[in-house]
């Protein structure tokens, strides 16, 4: 997508009252973390081949040359912001991203809560077998495990055969149950 198009989608999401992006930013501010107006940066990432990224130093990066649809912009922005939130709530120094299980937990939460694994996105990727329908819960959980594993595999400390998949399997139940900062409505 063009840089201006990605910036437009991002601006709209950020201004949407009660959007998940807003809820997440609000939770970070309440926890005392700095999230200035230039916290999101839209840039071409070329050879990196990633749709987005997050670091404590740079905040959230969206790679407009790799992003292909508006819903992918929204879910990627939220995915990366959830990493920022997890880092923020871990307190001074943030999370130990070098630890495979810690990293796996963050990726599980980001995949589960960002919309990365919404049915629409899985169909668009061609990952849903329409001829062999399975429950939505299965599609979602499989997608979360698959995408979290792919991300953890990029961690230099989690390179051995099956190491990333095992880290994800070890934490997936606990980390999918942690829906912060999105809490269910009272009595809901
Ligand atoms: Zn991630």
UniProtKB/TrEMBL annotation:
<dbReference type="Pfam" id="PF09768">
    <property type="entry name" value="Peptidase_M76"/>
</dbReference>
<keyword id="KW-0645">Protease</keyword>
<keyword id="KW-0378">Hydrolase</keyword>
<protein>
    <recommendedName>
        <fullName>Mitochondrial inner membrane protease ATP23</fullName>
        <ecNumber>3.4.24.-</ecNumber>
    </recommendedName>
</protein>
<keyword id="KW-0479">Metal-binding</keyword>
<comment type="similarity">
    <text>Belongs to the peptidase M76 family.</text>
</comment>
<keyword id="KW-0482">Metalloprotease</keyword>
<dbReference type="InterPro" id="IPR019165">
    <property type="entry name" value="Peptidase_M76_ATP23"/>
</dbReference>
